[in-house]
Amino acid sequence: MYDIEHCRCGEFGTHWEVCDTCSHMEKGYNSCRNRHCPGCNHIAQKRWVDARINDLLPVSYHHCVFTLPHEFNPICQYNRRVMYDLLFEKSSETLLDFGHNPKRLGATIGFYGLLHTWGGKMWQHPHVHFITTAGGIAPDGHWVEPKYHSSFLFPVTALSNVFRAKFLEGLKEIHHKLKFPDNLSFLADPQHPSAQWLYP
């Protein structure tokens, strides 16, 4: 908050702009460069958006979100890198598997994902937003249009079920890497009765 309140007010130093022709000088105040600052972040945001637009293919796109239940929040707090890597890995695998499945699409789709660890009300809410191509490239190189082009890429319920299975299976594999707070120390034992929701 201090950074935002004092942005371009002199607290972070000054700089001078000098005209090459008449040598006129104008004093400017440095910005805070805090990513939460509406002024500073807007510039970085615009540059990022412009760069992503340049990456886009001339096709339609769909928006897809993979979310972790709130029961995982304490584990994520103590194991951010491991848990968020797993979230990205399994959600990406799910999308690719659905794309490669001949019954769904039979092609390789393109996508990029953005991790959000908080919701709109600033409560912890880990989820990944994916922007996916509405279609993909088949093994023979031709473009394949999705079956439900105008509405969605893949059925949400089917995606959810596969992602859940993949994530829980991956969680078992990384269990030895996880750290648990004292009040959840019982989760370190997969056989503990109260840990069955984590390792069904």
Query: What is the overall silhouette?
Result: flat
The low-pLDDT segments are none
What does the largest sheet look like? 4 strands, antiparallel
Give the averaged pLDDT, no decimals: 87
Order of helices and strands: HEEHEHHEEEH
Indicate the proportion of strand residues: 15-25%
Roughly how much helix do the residues carry, as a percent range? 25-40%
Summed up, the helix count is 5
Total individual domains: 2
Total number of beta strands? 6
Rg computed from alpha carbons, rounded to a whole number of angstroms: 23 Å
Distance between the termini: 43 Å
Could you say which structural class the secondary elements and strand pairing correspond to? alpha+beta
Q: What this model shows, in words?
A:
The longest helix has 21 residues, at 80-100. The chain folds into two domains: 2-52, no CATH class; 59-195. The mean pLDDT is 87. The protein has five helices and six strands; from the N terminus they run αββαβααβββα. The relative contact order is 0.12. It is an alpha+beta fold and 200 residues long. Pfam families: Y2_Tnp, Zn_Tnp_IS91. One of its GO terms (molecular function) is transposase activity. InterPro entries: Transposase_32, Zn_Tnp. It comes from Desulfotignum phosphitoxidans DSM 13687.
